């Protein structure tokens, strides 16, 4: 980040060049973001394939779609991991809420 | 999945053992889910570190925090990738809504 500041200060003599330099840096960072999103979508595809199998097993075994103990445990683990990785734990709670609600909907659908 | 069906049919003679077999399979699948979540949380930590840098660059350049064209393009790419990976595109839309709203909040915070 201090590297970026140095870059822009060197080019700020010409406002147009400076703006282009910001845009070029943002463009490059966006490519990294897109790469991360691609990895995450592939992981989500694997995750829901697995949770669908869990849903089928639960339906066969007559287990309920929801498991609150498991969910509390997951959230606690994810919050701890987030803190370790320097990520706002609120973000992983929102991530978990998303994947858990979709997984449970699909489990309920599979059970019917 | 047909493998799981075969497994459970072999053990269904004893209802207790069959239930344990389901539970054991679910337990194993949950470990895979936890592994995927760990990878995703690490990727999210990297993603928000990068979007924070983008937010700083935008603030320095005087660019607005939001970029609707970029967002539409991202959603279209992620939907296409989801379809290719056999994932419900609605899930990636929800994923994108989550990360984009958090990133924009943080950009607005950085700009102030």
Q: How would you characterize the overall build of this protein?
A:
Two copies of one chain form a homodimer. In chain A, helix 1 runs antiparallel to helix 2 (15-61), helix 2 (15-61) packs parallel to helix 4 (89-111) and helix 3 (68-84) runs antiparallel to helix 4. Chain A has helices at 2-11, 15-61, 68-84, 89-111. Chain A has 112 residues and is mainly α. Chain A has a single domain, classed as Chorismate mutase (Chorismate Mutase Domain, subunit A), CATH 1.20.59. The termini of chain A are far apart.
What count of structural domains of chain A?
1
- What is the 3D form of chain A? elongated
Strand content of chain A: under 5%
Distance between the termini of chain A: 53 Å
Oligomeric description of these chains:
homodimer
CATH class of chain A: Mainly Alpha
Uncertain segments of chain A are none
Instruction: Provide the succession of SSEs of chain A.
Output: HHHH
Q: What is the number of E strands of chain A?
A: 0
CATH topology of chain A: Chorismate Mutase Domain, subunit A
Largest interface: A-B, 57 and 57 residues
Helix content of chain A: over 70%
The CATH H-level superfamily of chain A is Chorismate mutase
Mean pLDDT of chain A comes to: 87
